[in-house]
């Protein structure tokens, strides 16, 4: 409430009290305050504009750092994963996280941590697949494949995707989870698919 009455107008392009709550130093309530602001963000991230507001306070970057830190709890990690899932619903946001935050590498490295639960590892796998499905669609539909530079870029990203997908599949194969078969199949599709070849087929069908 103090945030709302502090100024004569409400700044809708800002996350209220984000740093104060996210980096809470209160001994008794720091977990509750951090969870509250993360829950607010998870519920509020609906469209790309919301993501742009969060980026002004480096929210996603701080969430990624929190997830892998000793300060994180199961509940805070769950909220971070939900925030990422909401963000990756939009291709423009996925593209930004891919190129500017290198989210694909962060997911791959983080998923290898032995301290994570099987649920968290499977969730990370889902995020990885969603991210690369967006990037694959972008590469195939919005990149000029007749341009040599663009074709080389597509080939490079596909090889990186295949390499990271194999690492994710290796991790997933070690997880005892009933839902892993679905995501393992999707990883196989990412590994085996030819982005440029599929685009040619789609153009022929059109």
List keywords for this structure.
single chain; 206 residues; mainly alpha; 2 domains; 72% helix; 0% strand; globular; URB1
What does this structure look like?
The chain has two domains: 1-91, no CATH class; 102-197, no CATH class. The chain has helices at 2-6, 18-22, 30-44, 48-55, 59-67, 74-87, 91-100, 103-110, 118-142, 148-173, 180-192, 195-205. It is globular and about 55 Å long. The model is unreliable at 198-206 (pLDDT under 50). The N and C termini lie far apart (56 Å). With 206 residues, the chain is mostly helical. Helix 9 packs antiparallel against helix 10 (148-173) and helix 9 runs parallel beside helix 11 (180-192). The protein has twelve helices and no strands.
How many domains, in number, for the residues? 2
Element pattern in H and E: HHHHHHHHHHHH
Distance between the termini: 56 Å
Residue stretches low in confidence (pLDDT < 50, at least 5 long) are 198-206
């Amino acid at each position: 409430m103090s945030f709302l009455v502090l100024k004569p107008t409400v700044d809708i392009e800002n996350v209220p009290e984000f740093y104060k709550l996210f980096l809470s130093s209160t001994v008794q309530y720091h977990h509750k305050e951090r969870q509250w602001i993360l829950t607010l963000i998870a519920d509020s991230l609906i469209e790309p504009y919301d993501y742009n507001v969060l980026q002004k306070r480096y929210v996603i970057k701080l969430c990624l750092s929190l997830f892998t830190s000793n300060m994180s709890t199961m509940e805070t990690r769950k909220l971070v994963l939900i925030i990422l899932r909401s963000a990756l619903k939009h291709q423009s946001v996925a593209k930004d996280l891919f190129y500017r935050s290198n989210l694909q590498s962060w997911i791959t490295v983080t998923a290898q941590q032995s301290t994570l639960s099987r649920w968290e590892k499977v969730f990370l796998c889902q995020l990885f697949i969603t991210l690369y499905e967006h990037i694959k669609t972008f590469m195939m539909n919005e990149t000029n494949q007749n341009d040599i530079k663009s074709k080389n870029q597509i080939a490079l990203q596909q090889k990186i995707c295949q390499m990271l997908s194999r690492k994710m599949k290796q991790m997933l194969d070690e997880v005892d989870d009933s839902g892993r078969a679905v995501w393992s199949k999707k990883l196989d599709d990412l590994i085996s698919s030819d982005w440029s070849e599929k685009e040619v087929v789609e153009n022929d069908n059109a």
